[in-house]
Design a protein that fits this description.
Blueprint (H helix, E strand, L loop, with lengths): L6 E2 L9 H5 L5 E3 L5 E3 L10 H5 L5 E2 L16 H10 L13 H10 L13 E5 L2 H20 L4 H7 L3 H5 L11 E8 L5 H18 L2 E5 L1 H9 L1 H7 L5 E11 L28 H12 L2
Antiparallel strand pairs: 1-4, 2-3, 5-6, 6-8, 7-8
Length: about 290
């Protein structure tokens, strides 16, 4: 990173070496006085670990100063677990806009979602007004009904065959009456394009649910984004970027009283046992299961 701009406040630095120890790129070294200095700044990935870990706030990097960061507070793990357990896919929404305060907080939070290789190439495309959502919804539903009833398109028919009758009858089976939508797009050059989007929306969903908002992952909406190119133009997706996934959200029309009672997921813990020498047949089977999709 050419503009790493690594600075050390010598009056604050306690020469603990934590910044060098935690540097992912291994480019921070300690000089003879145990003062951190940078070698090969072009290898910096801009993670800001050095700024975050310094116990006295002596390090500035990438134009960011420690006094502008928030302190980290301990969290109530039981409350977080309850939030995870109580998360539901909401399909009943109030027909009103989410307040500007909540919407602004949701948008601001997205600057902190992690990305593979610290690429940070994600773009977040909101429909934050119910009137805009209704226009989008009407266009997509009309186009689907026309495609399914007048001009059969194999890909559309296969994707929506289960919902064809409901769509024709006027049910909003794609967008579930949601007043808002978020589409995540990523650069085609991103090293972890799909994974970045899913992680970002997982963060978004839990934060939205903590505000009392409803959310619903919208795979059919993502299919529509892929099938109808004008939707990407409408949402402002740039060339060289593609939509990765869609989530619906809004104020809940219903509230759940309790968590569900899920079956325990299999948890397998490895034991020290040495490594088996696999036969050619076992290797082929394992490669098949590792890469089949």
């Amino acid at each position: 990173m050419e503009n790493m701009n690594f600075k050390v406040d010598l009056e604050k630095c306690i020469h603990c070496g934590l910044c060098a120890q935690d540097c992912i790129a291994k480019i921070i070294q300690l000089d003879g006085n145990k003062t951190p200095q940078v070698t090969k700044p072009e290898r910096c990935i801009g993670c800001q670990h050095c700024l975050a870990i310094c116990p006295v706030g002596a390090i500035s990097v990438c134009g960011k100063n420690p006094q502008d960061s928030e302190q980290i507070y301990s969290q109530n793990s039981d409350m977080i677990l309850n939030l995870i357990k109580s998360r539901r896919s909401d399909r009943n929404y109030k027909q009103e806009n989410v307040s500007k305060d909540k919407m602004d907080k949701l948008k601001d939070m997205l600057s902190w979602v992690p990305t593979g290789c610290n690429f940070h190439g994600l773009n977040f495309h909101f429909i934050d007004d119910i009137e805009v959502m209704n226009e989008f919804r009407e266009h997509v539903n009309t186009k689907l009904v026309n495609a399914l009833t007048k001009k059969p398109i194999k890909a559309v028919a296969e994707s929506f065959s289960h919902y064809t009758k409901m769509l024709i009858d006027g049910e909003d089976v794609i967008f579930r009456g949601a007043p808002h939508m978020l589409v995540v797009s990523n650069s085609v050059k991103a090293p972890c394009a799909k994974e970045d989007a899913i992680i970002a929306l997982s963060y978004f969903e839990l934060y939205a649910q903590s505000m009392g908002l409803g959310t619903c992952w919208c795979g059919l909406g993502q299919t529509c984004m892929m099938l109808f190119p004008e939707l990407s133009e409408y949402m402002g997706i740039k060339e060289g970027y593609q939509s990765s996934y869609v989530i619906l959200f809004g104020e809940k029309a219903v509230n759940y009283a309790r968590t569900t009672q899920n079956e325990k997921s299999p948890v397998i813990c490895a034991e020290k046992q040495g490594f088996e020498k696999l036969s050619a047949g076992k290797k082929i089977k394992r490669y098949f299961w590792n890469f089949v999709r």
